[in-house]
Amino acid sequence: MFESLGNKLQDILDRVGKERQLTEAQVKAAMREIRMALLEADVNFGVAKDFVAKVSEKAVGQSVEGSLTAGQTVVKLVHDELIETLGGKTIQPELRSEGNVWFMVGLQGAGKTTSTGKLAAHYKSKGRRVLLVAADTQRPAARDQLEVLAKQVGVPVLKVADGESPAETKRRVDEHLKTDFRDLVIVDTAGRLQIDEALMDQLADLQATMQPTESLLVVDAMTGQEALNVAQTFDQRVNVTGLIITKMDGDARGGAALSARSVTGKPIYFAGTSEKIAGLDAFHPDRVAGRILG
Ligand code: GDP
User: What's the sign of the alpha-carbon dihedral 260, 240, 217, 229?
Assistant: First the structure.
């Protein structure tokens, strides 16, 4: 595991003394390499710095177990801490027996609409009755895209009209539910290429009106350093309850996941693993920790 990093550290930390404990100098040298590895994986600079400081504290004086080298000991410590920071274990959103309303939020292109379709398929296969709401009041193309996905999955979709008010959208959803019982309503909200105030105000309005039980922020793994900014801004304005990291099938090593999770403290529920409807996996902190270390 983590051959290259392990070897590099082994060269630096060749010897442990008779006490078989990591010294401060060794930890310092190792952490330079760890910080580099994190930055190469596109972890935000500040997040990497804080992470390294936390691990350093634990590492100094740590005993090196019988069969392990000093390098392996450090790698294990870092790996364990990464898993912890990424959430420890796989977590899934809680579902009530009915009345679940989930908002999908994020920048345009992050994979919101695709992930909405994926979630619909996933929960339909678990016996949930899903209704999709295409709530992008500005872009008819985005609504059409969700309609195509809804057909593919075999769930109903309610499309908002251009410029429709949040109150009207809520009224139409409530109306729909009176004649067609659905226990999970997933609302695909409008995205912008960049965070802007108008988008945030509009989202906050819709959220105040519809009172979602979850607001899931969709973050593109390829956005690297920018992921921290996006996660922080959305969380401050619309109180994110969980994260979905998309495009984990690409080259990205997963630094965006660590940054978004660290800055919001919110659980990462799912990872997008392809463009297809089935390309949604539960998020596994251990696998992503391994990938970040390279
Ligand atoms: P939205 O603007 O946030 O709704 O983004 P879309 O859902 O339209 O996705 C933008 C692009 O990313 C599309 O070409 C999707 O097929 C692609 N995409 C979304 N999720 C994934 C993923 O997990 N893996 C890959 N490879 N592509 C994805």
Answer: negative
Edge-to-edge strands, sheet with 130-135 = 157-159, 130-135, 184-189, 100-105, 214-220, 242-246, 268-272, 280-282
Span from the CA of 250 to the centroid of ligand 1 (angstroms): 12
Could you tell me if 75 and 37 are in contact, meaning their C-beta atoms sit under 8 angstroms apart? Answer: no
Give the ipTM of the model, two decimals please: 0.99
- Assess contact for 253 and 223: CB atoms under 8 A: no
- The model's pTM is 0.94
pLDDT in tens, 55-101: 999 999 888 887 888 888 888 999 999 999 999 999 999 999 999 99
Burial of 19 (0-12, 13-18, 19+ CB in 10 A): exposed
Distance, CA of 288 to CA of 254 (rounded, Å): 6
Distance from Cα 5 to the centre of ligand 1, integer Å: 32
Q: Is 281 in the pocket of ligand 1 (CB under 6 A)?
A: no
Is 166 close to ligand 1, i.e. is its CB under 6 Å away? no
Ligand 1 pocket check for 280: Cβ under 6 Å: no
